[in-house]
Amino acid sequence: RWWMRLKVSVSFIKNKYNDVKKTIEAINYTSADYIHVDIMDGKFVEDKNYDINEVALFLRENVKPLDVHLMCCDLEKYIVEYADLMPKFITFHLEATDKVNEMIDMIHSYGIKCGISIKPNTSVKELLPYLNKIELVLVMSVEPGKGGQKFMPIAIDKINELRKLNKNIIISIDGGINDETVRLVNTDMVVSGSYVCMSDNFEEKINKLKKNIG
Description:
This protein is α/β, with parallel strands linked by helices.
């Protein structure tokens, strides 16, 4: 994998400035590949964070491609709202719906790439019916819904299993990613939140992630 450049998607949910707009502005001045937009509905996960109007306001001056992660139950509503921001990816949780194919088609109908995320205790095998229909799998290496958690090594085997099942899919990982845990995972993309956004130098941290690929 040394010939492929690891993509870094930065989540602003936990940030040093306690100011989302300022954090997004700072990310825009870095070599981050994407801004990771975590949306929590207070149902699928305990906390609720932003609504679409707030997010649209935060991102008004943003120039980076968006990578939207819906930790939500009422997916039709959220897909319609967030498709409006024209993100590169919209990712939803396999555990959040029994209408997985409909959600994939709905995201694709907007010309947006579709990702599916799985929680730490969900088996990769549950993704099998969908792997040829989607562009990205987001493996959670923490329980979704809270920033700043410790990396769960169970994710390493899942990534290796996914690699064998589908060579073309983009594999991303989210949770506890820093300059040490990034070496443990053979992914195309990492989502990093507090490691980058709680630091004094965002670009230095992003460069550390990109240089430390396994």
